[in-house]
Amino acid sequence: NAGVTQTPKFRVLKTGQSMTLLCAQDMNHEYMYWYRQDPGMGLRLIHYSVGEGTTAKGEVPDGYNVSRLKKQNFLLGLESAAPSQTSVYFCASSYSIDYPYEQYFGPGTRLTVT
Amino acid sequence: QQQVKQSPQSLIVQKGGISIINCAYENTAFDYFPWYQQFPGKGPALLIAIRPDVSEKKEGRFTISFNKSAKQFSLHIMDSQPGDSATYFCAALRGTGANSKLTFGKGITLSVRP
Question: Which residue in chain A is spatially nearest to B50 when comparing CA positions?
Fold first, then answer.
């Protein structure tokens, strides 16, 4: 099993450009999450999904949109990138409703917005 | 308002020594406390977790100590090895199922010198 994979690994955008980050998991997990990690800030939840076709806002959702059309995929979109969105983005998934802290993380996408 | 606070911000330990990382929380609604380990260029990975009705949990060289009255918990790494050099995040979970929310600390960088 590949676990959680993220595409792309690195990306540089100019302010105002748009892009989509793709997360895929092959563990049949129900829950999926998008986090951003910034120096000295830890991990902050952007959006999450508790199942196919459902999404919900996390701690820092502004400027991002998500979609979960298929159970195994969770997409994170930036419609108009801003320098403040320069960060490392992690996708995660978890199987059990009873143990949502058991999250499996992808390798991350390093995004730079100039 | 930071709900989960880690200390120290960074830690340097000699090989064979004990690494101790502390976390404090404010919200008494938290009911599960995991620790995540992150190596450079990788996503975080669940290391060990504890429930508030348990004062200590040990898995190999890693031990969590929990003090409910003080709202503090700590990670002890016995016989620290250079391979333990990583960033460590404490976290706290509240709620259940789709309403569960995992809050991360800012993380601390541990360096184990040979």
Answer: A101
